[in-house]
Write a structure and sequence with these properties.
Number of domains: 3
Shape: elongated
Strand content: 15-25%
Oligomer: single chain
Radius of gyration: 44 Å
Strand order of the largest sheet: 1-16-3-12-13
Number of helices: 11
Number of strands: 20
Length: 464
Amino acid sequence: MATITSLGAGTSLDLETILTSLQANNEVVLDQLSARQESYEVKVSSFSQLQSSVQSVLDAAKALAKVDTLNAVKSTVSGSAVTVTTVAGATPGQYSVTVNQVATAQRLQSASALDRTEKHGASATLEIELENGTKTTITTSDTSLDGIAKAINANDESGVNATIINDGQNGSYLMLTAKDTGQANTIKSINVTDNTELGALLNYTSADPTGGQLVQTQEALDAEVTINGIAVTSASNSITEAVDGVTFDISPDAEPNDVATVSITSDPQAIKDAVTKFVNAYNSLQTTLYNLTSFSVADETQNPLTGDSTARNIQTSLASALQVVSGEGALQTLNALGISTNPDKVAGVGGTLTVDSTKLTNALNSNPADVARVLAGPNGLAASITTATDAILGSSGSIKHRQDGLQETVDAMQKQYDNTESRMTAELDNMRARFVQLTVLVNQMNSTSSYLTQQFAALSKSTS
């Protein structure tokens, strides 16, 4: 039997066109299923976008209740004797700081050595003890000044830094400096064992700081200042415990009797900035909701979440969360602080917030406690937004629940698409096989018809 290279070949039947048309119709159906599935996938993605916007609102609301926001302070310093750093909650006030003494670190100097690399004995063990009780044992096989310096510096627990200073004339000196300032960090003793030669060079005791070859060249001193008439002592030049939340850093260039005046005051700008961030986050959420849910009457076009009840409920819930009443004080609402809903749409978006900066500043200046209650109190904005978003975000929130439902629909549509595609492919394959059989049959019939026609023609000629 001849091979069929084209359906309907040798017949008047256009079977290939019929199959092509059927396949095109099938693709239309599959495209419709795919488009519907894609629309649900876009909804899932849209809720992820919405979740991110809601989370930003929650984060901004929580920032309103942070100590760093509510109790922020700022400082000013007159004079160069000290600088000041503060943390939220620092005690406001005016402080006169007089520097009486700058903290210094103890420094010891060895006798001169002509060769810094010359060893003093085979090996040695050094025990370094500080006045604060810290003891460190260091063992080294290199007993030269270089070797001793390297061994000390390699030990982070010794509390001592070692350097070699060459005077350019008579030799080199080992310099030992306490890592930290103050009398508590003074080197109490250095004791070398198993090496008499090195011991003569390095043994030291604070009871007799100039009695050996290693002598004290700078005494360790505590910092001493007077703050508002009260004497304060510190091992370091950073005084951290004199005033709650305030660190006074004494300048290394300060001289005795240098005076600085420090002013610590509340910083309302931190609250203003936090309010601005919240308003921006809330307005951004409104823009997101508008872009996802709006419907254009003129163009008769809609967005992924147009008409979606979950999205609508989120918008309503958060708008309701703004209606806070602190229940105490002269100022109890957001509107009293200058935070209100914009009556007009902005670029088509309604429900946005606006801030009257003058009104907010006046509230912070005259009633800071009221402002704190409205923003961060038990009935305040941060608590209200947190309660509202608890039902929206998280593993049991409305967004997750809606996304799970949409994803189930997407999965079901994918299964429907796969089944439909498989069924259509099988039907086309079956029809193609039947068309092949039909083509063969028609060609056989045509061949038989041609043969019979020839035979009848021959028979007619023989009988005439």
